[in-house]
Write a structure and sequence with these properties.
This protein is an alpha/beta fold. Helices cover 34% and strands 11% of the residues. Strands 2-1-3-4-5 form a five-stranded parallel beta sheet. The radius of gyration is 16 Å and the shape is globular. It starts with 31 loop residues before the first strand and ends in an 8-residue tail after the last helix.
Length: 217
């Protein structure tokens, strides 16, 4: 697995900054949740996008889900697609009506980058989200490793956690979790379908510890 691609932000309608009822009938829609991430979120190998931990979490909690990002990307690493998480936010999400919750999940691909740069990039991203969608809740998931993480990954984790704390966003940390041998694809990096199911179970429980579940508002 392995810069900001800014992109033009489209004008948004009156709902752009305020989550809420999208049916216009007095009946609230299911919560709209967006996730920015890397290949763990987008899907890799035999795992399709609708089979990832993000999709499994949305099914469990009854969310409407929109995912953004691409394999190999990170807060600083633009990957082969040439955009960081900030670029994915600008191009794929920022022009949409505000979600009830945004989850930023990543850091695995920010190897070879100083933790300070990763933290700075994470801060810029969260500030951009706050400015665009002031009413949206934010949660941050640290780097996901299906095997024991290398030392640098903990430094990235700590930098992102500090930024999340500064933004008063829940930080959910999977780095020391053990997922089981059948949770790992032969590439030695990515989750199997069962691995994604286990990731989703962990994420649902972690979110609920912060009061985020079926009702995220």
């Amino acid at each position: 697995m392995s810069g900001c691609a800014g992109g033009e932000t489209r004008p948004a309608g009156p709902e752009a900054g305020a989550p809420g009822d999208r049916l216009g009938s007095g009946r609230a829609a299911a919560p709209l949740v967006m996730v920015i991430g890397d290949s763990f979120t987008a899907g890799s190998g035999p795992v399709e996008p609708w089979e990832t931990y993000a999709a499994e979490t949305a099914r469990e909690l009854g969310w409407q889900l929109v995912t953004a990002g691409a394999p190999g990307t990170g807060y600083v690493n633009p990957g082969r697609v040439g955009r960081t998480f900030l670029g994915s936010f600008a191009l794929e999400l920022s022009w949409r009506p505000a979600p009830d919750l945004l989850i930023v999940s990543g850091g695995h691909n920010d190897r070879g980058v100083s933790p300070g740069r990763v933290g700075q990039a994470a801060g810029i991203l969260l500030e951009a989200v706050r400015a665009r969608w002031p009413g949206t809740r934010i949660a941050v998931v640290g780097p996901i490793w299906m095997t024991p993480a290398p030392p640098w990954a903990y430094e990235v984790r700590n930098a992102v956690a500090a930024v999340a704390a500064g933004e008063r966003a829940p930080f959910l940390d999977p780095i020391d979790r053990r997922w089981g041998g059948d949770a790992l694809l032969p590439d030695g990096v990515h989750p199997t379908r069962e691995g994604h199911v286990r990731l989703a179970r962990w994420l649902v429980a972690a979110l609920r510890e912060h009061g985020i579940g079926r009702d995220v508002r």
